[in-house]
Amino acid sequence: MIEQFLDREPKQGYVCNEFVIEAWQAVTGEDLKQRLEDHLNGNTSFEQLSEPISPCLVLFSNSARSPTHIGLFYDCKVLHLAASGAQYVPLEMILGFKNREFYR
Q: Which domain of life is it from (predicted)?
């Protein structure tokens, strides 16, 4: 299921948010677009998790001033769209970021 996303690259109008919306729908069947938009605007219906539970969203950044990146935690790895293209990496790679939050 995840393999279909591994050839994706960021482009105008298709960055990590759009990527994770598409991946979340493939994994869960839920259209996440409005919920994610609401969350990013400070109105959330997401449950924050203390630990990742597959599937869940992962928001991560290196500081309060750096942009927040989003990925999908699924099957003990994180699927996200980096500048170099889609990556499906071990959770440990994300744990190196200073700020990380898990949501469902």
A: Bacteria
SS3 57: strand
CB 36 within 8 A of CB 25: no
By CB atoms closer than 10 A (0-12, 13-18, 19+), residue 81 is: buried
What is the tens place of the pLDDT at every residue in 44-57? 779 999 999 999 99
User: Do 101 and 59 contact (CB within 8 A), yes or no?
Assistant: yes
Q: 3-103 — its CATH code?
A: 3.90.1720.10
- Taken as a whole, the chain contains a residue count of 104
Closest CA relative to residue 23, chosen from 36, 11, 41, 12: 36
Per-residue pLDDT of 66-84, as tens digits, reads 888 999 999 999 999 999 9
